[in-house]
């Protein structure tokens, strides 16, 4: 039966990296007879400019119908002054929330060919394979009340609310533990329970969930220490599970260990494994239009889509092998290019992955 894939290119480098990912998706579709139906829609700044809202009803309707969604990135300085409710990023957050994509998997995996591109010494990152499991539809990103209010003395005050209910913590916990079972069977839960009650509850529920997984070891770490440990000795981690904002921040830090934020893919899953797939990076307005963005995070997100939603692990593995092959050939976009490498453009990188897929 055919599968519907919704393509949301987004803003700035979004369309540039998406063009390469779609080439790869179309190629695996024909190589593996996947019978995919691709459709496109607007999200973020592109949608705001065209329709006045960052998540148009048509996009949401198509997203609900799709078996999987592939997203580029949204946002940019030209929309900085837009009010909070209509910002491009709200479109992305709305989609995550409406589709209940609570489970965000961000694998920080070092391709050995990129050891020199990592910001850490090669011996600290050789063999690095961490999975960050970030809660994506709750926490301080979505807590109410929120806003900017004027106090009696006339001063304005900004406020957000950091909340997690037991059920939200439990379901991300189960996801993290079940994924750890397929890996090195270690979960480190990251919180700030020395200060924040919401994460005292987080820690308590993680302990409870752990009882269902006696074969998996649970440890806890405060988020400030976790940030430090990630750049001190990242290989100590297997699965990290944490809330929305901590996960956002820690995953960008983890990205640099792999050589570039342009290498980190992600999956955002609902309870049934339906998902949205996107690179962890943003729309990189500073390099947009130059043809230099690294498309590999988006291409690797296609691999995650094949693995987690479409259940085509062979096709997923083929993409990952093709990426590795291209890196073996010394081909590098600017962000991962070192002396002796061959620097290629965004589209040359996409073409190289296609050639490697074929061979
Ligand atoms: P960013 O991730 O866009 O860029 C940070 C730095 O990384 C920049 O120097 C950029 O050039 C570089 N970079 C990012 N992706 C790259 C790639 N594929 N290849 C090479 N270099 C790359 O973060 P930012 O600058 O803080 O945010 C820019 C915009 O993107 C903002 O509007 C932000 O809200 C948005 N954003 C969107 C998403 C998303 O759509 N999922 C994620 C993060 C940020
Ligand atoms: C990400 C981004 C988003 C987030 C923004 C653009 C809403 O930084 O996907 O990592 O904070 O979740
Ligand atoms: Mn982020």
From TrEMBL:
GO terms, biological process: L-leucine biosynthetic process
Pathway membership, UniProt: Amino-acid biosynthesis; L-leucine biosynthesis; L-leucine from 3-methyl-2-oxobutanoate: step 3/4
Question: Is S-adenosyl-L-methionine there in the keyword field?
Answer: no
Top enzyme class, one word, equals: oxidoreductase
Question: Start and end of every Isopropylmalate dehydrogenase-like domain?
Answer: 4-353
Q: Can you provide one Gene Ontology molecular function annotated for this UniProt record?
A: 3-isopropylmalate dehydrogenase activity
EC number(s) on record? 1.1.1.85
List the SMART domains hit by this protein, alphabetically.
Iso_dh (SM01329)
Keyword line = Amino-acid biosynthesis, Branched-chain amino acid biosynthesis, Cytoplasm, Leucine biosynthesis, Magnesium, Manganese, Metal-binding, NAD, Oxidoreductase
Q: Is Ribosomal protein there in the keyword field?
A: no
| Residues bound to substrate | 96, 106, 134, 224
User: Where does this protein hold NAD(+)?
Assistant: 76-89, 282-294
Q: Which cofactor does it need?
A: Mn(2+); Mg(2+)
Compartment(s) where it occurs, according to its Swiss-Prot or TrEMBL record: Cytoplasm
InterPro entries xref list: IsoCit/isopropylmalate_DH_CS, IsoPropMal-DH-like_dom, Isopropylmalate_DH
Cofactor: bound how, per the entry note? Binds 1 Mg(2+) or Mn(2+) ion per subunit.
This enzyme catalyses: (2R,3S)-3-isopropylmalate + NAD(+) = 4-methyl-2-oxopentanoate + CO2 + NADH
Query: Where is the site described as Important for catalysis found in this chain?
Result: 141, 192
Ligand binding (Mg(2+)): 224, 248, 252
This protein's GO CC annotations: cytosol
Pfam families, from UniProt? Iso_dh
UniProt record similarity statement: Belongs to the isocitrate and isopropylmalate dehydrogenases family. LeuB type 1 subfamily.
Known partners and oligomeric status: Homodimer.
Give the function comment from the record. Answer: Catalyzes the oxidation of 3-carboxy-2-hydroxy-4-methylpentanoate (3-isopropylmalate) to 3-carboxy-4-methyl-2-oxopentanoate. The product decarboxylates to 4-methyl-2 oxopentanoate.
Name of this chain's protein:
3-isopropylmalate dehydrogenase
User: Can you name the source organism?
Assistant: Parahaliea maris
Origin organism lineage: Bacteria, Pseudomonadati, Pseudomonadota, Gammaproteobacteria, Cellvibrionales
